[in-house]
Amino acid sequence: MYTDVIMAGFGGQGIMLIGDILTYAAMHENKRVTYMPTYGVEMRGGTANCTIMISDEEIGSPMTGHPYSVIVMNGPSLVKFQPKVRPGGFLLVNTSLVEATAVTRADIDTLLLPANDIALELGNGKIANMVALGGYVERTQVVSLESIKKTLPKAIAERYHKTLPINIKAIETGAQLARRG
Amino acid sequence: MYTDVIMAGFGGQGIMLIGDILTYAAMHENKRVTYMPTYGVEMRGGTANCTIMISDEEIGSPMTGHPYSVIVMNGPSLVKFQPKVRPGGFLLVNTSLVEATAVTRADIDTLLLPANDIALELGNGKIANMVALGGYVERTQVVSLESIKKTLPKAIAERYHKTLPINIKAIETGAQLARRG
Amino acid sequence: MKESQLVKGNVALAEAAIQAGCRYYFGYPITPQNDIPEYLSEHLPKQSGVFIQAESEIASINMVMGAAATGARAMTSSSGPGISLMQEAMSYMAGSEIPCLVVNVMRCGPGLGGISPTQGDYFQATRGGGHGDYYNIVLAPASVQEMFDLTMKAFDLADKYRNPAMILADAILGQMKEPAILEPREPVRTSAKPWAITGAADRKPQYLKTLYLSDGEQEAHNLELMRKYDVIRDKEVLCEAKNLEGAELLVVAFGTASRIVKTAMNMAREEGIRIGLIRPITLFPFPSKAILEASEQIPKVLVVEMNTGQMLIDVQVSAHKSAGIFFYGRPGGGVPTPEEVLVEIKRSLHATAGIQASKNSVG
Amino acid sequence: MKESQLVKGNVALAEAAIQAGCRYYFGYPITPQNDIPEYLSEHLPKQSGVFIQAESEIASINMVMGAAATGARAMTSSSGPGISLMQEAMSYMAGSEIPCLVVNVMRCGPGLGGISPTQGDYFQATRGGGHGDYYNIVLAPASVQEMFDLTMKAFDLADKYRNPAMILADAILGQMKEPAILEPREPVRTSAKPWAITGAADRKPQYLKTLYLSDGEQEAHNLELMRKYDVIRDKEVLCEAKNLEGAELLVVAFGTASRIVKTAMNMAREEGIRIGLIRPITLFPFPSKAILEASEQIPKVLVVEMNTGQMLIDVQVSAHKSAGIFFYGRPGGGVPTPEEVLVEIKRSLHATAGIQASKNSVG
Amino acid sequence: MPQQVFKRPRTLSDKPTHFCPGCTHGTAHRLVAEAIDHFGVQEKTIGVACVGCAVFMYDYFNVDVIEAPHGRAPAVATGVKRARPDRIVFTYQGDGDLAAIGTSEIIHTANRGENITVVFVNNTVYGMTGGQMAPTTMLGQQTTTTPYGRDFRTDGYPIRMAEMLATLEGVAYSARVSLHNAKAVLNAKKAIRKAFEMQVNEMGFSLVEVLSACHTNWRVSPLEGQKKVEEEMIPYFPLGVFKERTGKDFL
Amino acid sequence: MPQQVFKRPRTLSDKPTHFCPGCTHGTAHRLVAEAIDHFGVQEKTIGVACVGCAVFMYDYFNVDVIEAPHGRAPAVATGVKRARPDRIVFTYQGDGDLAAIGTSEIIHTANRGENITVVFVNNTVYGMTGGQMAPTTMLGQQTTTTPYGRDFRTDGYPIRMAEMLATLEGVAYSARVSLHNAKAVLNAKKAIRKAFEMQVNEMGFSLVEVLSACHTNWRVSPLEGQKKVEEEMIPYFPLGVFKERTGKDFL
Amino acid sequence: MSSVTSERKQTEAYIIILEERCKSCRFCVETCPRECIVIDTKINAQGYHPAKFEGMGKCTGCCLCAEVCPDTAIEVFK
Amino acid sequence: MSSVTSERKQTEAYIIILEERCKSCRFCVETCPRECIVIDTKINAQGYHPAKFEGMGKCTGCCLCAEVCPDTAIEVFK
Ligand SMILES: Cc1ncc(C[n+]2csc(CCOP(=O)(O)OP(=O)(O)O)c2C)c(N)n1
Ligand SMILES: Cc1ncc(C[n+]2csc(CCOP(=O)(O)OP(=O)(O)O)c2C)c(N)n1
Ligand code: SF4
Ligand code: SF4
Ligand code: SF4
Ligand code: SF4
Ligand code: SF4
Ligand code: SF4
Ligand SMILES: [Mg+2]
Ligand SMILES: [Mg+2]
Question: What global pTM score does this model have?
């Protein structure tokens, strides 16, 4: 078993956090993992993204030009990453910030989620990332939702643990919509 | 034709100057020449020396560990250079500042000149170097005394040209003593 | 044994320094290694250690020199431009035989360059870098675990040989998170340092210096250093050899490039192509012997680097005369993909033996 | 034609700079090259030029960068420790393609070292020196006349390729006096510099920079630089070849070492031994082809350097596979004597072909 | 018909900046561009970019620009100005750039009285690299490398560069301004203009230290950042003119 | 029976120095050794040698010594002192070393208030390398790189380091003394002792600038050199104490 | 240009906010003495809620908003 | 140690000049208030004419000569 995913959006959208959560969940399922974030000036003003690889065997390159999956949280990220998804791969797009019409690849599985709107509905605009994570995990089944929930406290700093319930809620909502979508 | 000479003494004894003079004289006689002085911190407090090579052909290395001739103007220089003179070579020692008994090489030609004393006799303690130069040129015949005198004005800065006569006098005296010696 | 943790390469390295007994860090911020000073500024004070953010890289490395001269383990970390600024002092430390650790999480050059992963500082790291005849001990990790392990090793080697050691990493290794066990593999060696400058109580005053002005002194010193480097070459080579048996092609790659090669090797295996890998872990000393021996058996060698061909020359000099040597490199933050490497593997296999070193750089 | 003058190497170099149209000198004192700033501080003002003694080598090279960025010919000079401090900025200049001249009158290292003649900075000079993938154009004079001639040449090459050029000399070449003709061999080329930063009148604003952050930009830039270096390698190699015809042994040596070799060659000739010499005049680009061709004919190659073996590796990679390669070097200001070189010549001739590279260093 | 009374200065390009929202680097850029416009010297101005958040100067100023290595802008500017004394040369540097790694270059450039203008943006941190301590970080201030707050015993004291440089003979003008509100901006505008005027009149080295918020790294909102500048920075870094040469009395 | 009332301090080795005749580096060395003797700290003193005529410090002081790269002695001393705060650490630097290439290091070391002592010998030239201009060269002074005399328009102004450093918070003691006659030497002795006392009492950074002749490079006799110090240097570089911390008021 | 008077009379002055440049720092909002500026609910392409001019008739053209705008997103007309 | 009095009485004080250390700078000669020191005509091994004490009975042991000697070539006894 091997898969990878690139998650991308504005700095501040919590991209790195959902990357971390996925990585912990995969570790929990005894997979080998690598997690590669963007860093440095790239983060300022521009987009932030991270690449996660999950495998049963030793992982070679921790970066890829042809990801199996991509989560796109804003417009610039769609421009950058839509063309890179492997044929047959998976693309999740946050249509709250991205024009759905810009999603043009027909050779891949796509999931359009208005993540910010959903988040706002759930009462916290900042958890759009969790909505997306839920959608991704549900659709790809790369790890179980159970593992995600179990390892969530590891990835989220302790002082924010009071937000765990709302985060779980968002993940579940994302997953639910993915099942429907 | 090829020869070389190392001239050595205290900084301030005018070693570099007589090296320059010899080099100019050799150039005047259409020889190839190189002139290599000591430099930098080596000059401070310690001894100063220079190496001159004179040849009819292209000169390779401008330094030598086995000089044909050495002019020694002070004690430390004798210690350093006496052992290096090539067998059959020539060693000129300023016995005004060096114990004559320290001159021990028997396999070379030696000339002992109390250069400072002679210079004082000539009325200028600073021209001991010229006395030594005269002795060296006379004994080795590497260039003619004529060439030395002719090129002297080139090597000595113009503002000192009034000292030319006394310098020439010192060179001649050295040469004379070398003839006798 | 400690549990395996998900940790950033830079953090694993910083934690290794603490566990290796390093209590003195002096550094100046630069991407992509800022996690190192940030981690240490938080954790060193808890260990009664000293963290100083110096006013520059030059000050940093000279503070390292001062602290290390007292016998303490000391380090700095930086990237390209900052490492260039440290060359004078690193030359001094090699000359006065003061051990230390310098970490270079490489960024692109020349100049300010980008911060993408790259390996363009191989020459600088392995050729001394500063002026004069000397070498750094250079270790090239290829995983977060090795960021930890080799950092501990680097302190040991530095002390053992009284020589600067360098970790040569890149942004992937620094920024990537992987599970790693942050615990020493072997107990930390702490050696007596009678040469240290600690104040002349109960012994004669002593000094550490690099100025040699009397006849032959400097040369004697240089030759002594050379003898030391020869011992290091003899005793301290580390490399990973993989699938050499029966391979048609030998790939040589270090650090991040070697990981990409591994992915490409798997892809090749699936196509029935047998590839061997030598991954130099020490870049100085270079695993010349391993490469010579492997290339006696394997007729073709492909060097893969994230630069325009720097380790290449060491492979050329090391490999058996009969081996055909090929090169694939991408400089300036261009990370070769496993697919590209596979193409080069095939190209090398099909090329006639005549080509000695073809620089194929895909833009 | 001007008369031949007895002149110090450093002075010949400084005078060449003036004659090459260089009007901007920025430098910091260091032995054994102080005659250069001293001469220029006296003579540049007479030419309406600018001489600034900077507060450091770092300031010097950055001032050079600024002046050269306006299209003017500019230079600095230094030695070992100072040159090490310039590596960051030299990397920037290579990256932003700003031509300049940097003179390194080498001193011993590592560290402060001695000031005797030595060649320990070959690696630093020829491998870029600073961080990242780049090269300096490196010229190695071997006489006072060449201190003059190659300095003029260096300015031309720097401008032609928009790249830093370096004169790599040593204390003998800098301090020695020899007769020399201080007159250009060819007319000084002055090229238009449309890239120069002069103020944006009558054109769009432009810039010189080295920071490349968007995808692939830095890599493309690096590859472009590499193509430039390939052109330089192709077109600008200079070397002196002597007595290759029928030689039993090929000696490769540059700068001062080559002069000592010449004396040894004469001594050998007197003993009936036929020695050929290749003296690289450009160290980058290296005369690989000349060495390959010569070593196809001459079965043995002896490399003589005043270091512990740095150019050696370039000869090893260049020479024909069948050639046996030997090395003789003295580091740290130990100047090999012609007699010693002769001994090594004989030793190489008698050695079995099996030895690839024996480092013989006589203390 | 209403006329446009405030517009982008010619010298400022219309490329959107990469600065964080509310980062007053943007304001400082504009004021510099206005000064250049004011003296009508755009076509003969050469900018020297530092390494820091302002490194992309070449994207934002419609003048020729050369990028200097971190901290070395004053030395690069010296080279430029010596080669082209008829040009207007300025550097734009951060506090890490000017007061840490570039200490030596700024002091000696000032001391030589180089006829250049330095715009020095003091935001108490290394903005570009993620908010590490700068020489101007306030005592007690938490940064990514002073997690327990800056402690003078380990980290030294915040340096007042404008004052220190004012003590050097070569300096014609040294002032500190701020950008925390409209009035401050208007004062800053005057000071920056004055600094360029000094250069235009060949009076020697001029410097304006501009207090600026880096709220991203201070981890506050842009407005809170402005408040911190006013309430915390200004008391330690007083605004004012520390030196102003009036005649060519330096000759 | 007469008793010996003046003798070589224990901390000064009896190796003859390489200094030129009449070079007051020798005197400064002795005064430092006397101060170390005075506080009885020879066995725990670590010297940091600079590059300059004083580079051979390890030959002359009976203490442990580490050689620093040119200009970097304060940084090296910082490393030493941080690792061994119980040791007495001093640097001994020339004006090229401290005020030119080492500007950044001295300023930031002073600013951090490192508890070390700096002996700074200002002889207005680069002695070791043959008399080139230093940052402290007097206006009009001829050196091997200012053959027409130092001109502030090209070369800047002589920098007064003791005064500039005194402006930094971290500095506990900053003074300028001279060695041009016996009285000056006795004053210098006091200042150097005071500087070490500051360190012994953990008061922070202390510096003594020592005016010194380099008659070799000034091309005058030793006695003329002393006169020049008195008549030309002191008027520009006034003697005195520019900062003296009295209590531990820095805490 | 007429000088700004303190009297609150109807003016013709107005500003134009270059929406795509705006990063929503609120400086203009806080600065405007006539409270002519608010933050919009919409999001621009950069992902920010841009400032919006709502001061027709109130605005004096004093330019203070423009002076404090770090992104030169405001043009003032009078 | 008795304190130095200004009265010119015979004293027992004297100095020893370590001849081989002396570099003939003349500082002691110029400094001695009692003119006890002269420069010798002989040359030492370093090549200098060393200073010579000629002040027996004059010397007060004031140490000024020693204080100014850059080469620590003077020992004072009193
Ligand atoms: C030699 C070198 N060291 C370090 C860096 C990394 N670096 C880039 S910008 C910067 C500091 C930026 O801070 P500042 O100068 O205050 O500017 P700001 O971003 O705060 O405006 C540093 C340390 C570098 N590029 N080069
Ligand atoms: C990096 C570097 N640059 C230059 C030098 C050459 N150098 C040696 S000593 C010195 C200056 C000496 O002057 P100063 O510090 O005033 O000491 P002094 O000899 O006058 O006592 C210089 C420039 C060096 N050793 N290292
Ligand atoms: S990091 Fe700070 S200085 Fe840099 S752009 Fe953002 S707010 Fe401005
Ligand atoms: S050169 Fe000057 S500083 Fe150096 S020892 Fe001689 S007189 Fe003293
Ligand atoms: S110009 Fe003045 S009144 Fe008009 S919106 Fe701007 S700040 Fe308000
Ligand atoms: S000041 Fe400018 S960037 Fe800030 S909210 Fe107003 S218009 Fe937008
Ligand atoms: S001790 Fe005083 S009186 Fe005696 S010789 Fe010395 S200076 Fe003269
Ligand atoms: S002061 Fe010292 S060195 Fe100078 S002459 Fe007197 S004894 Fe000699
Ligand atoms: Mg800043
Ligand atoms: Mg000095």
Answer: 0.96
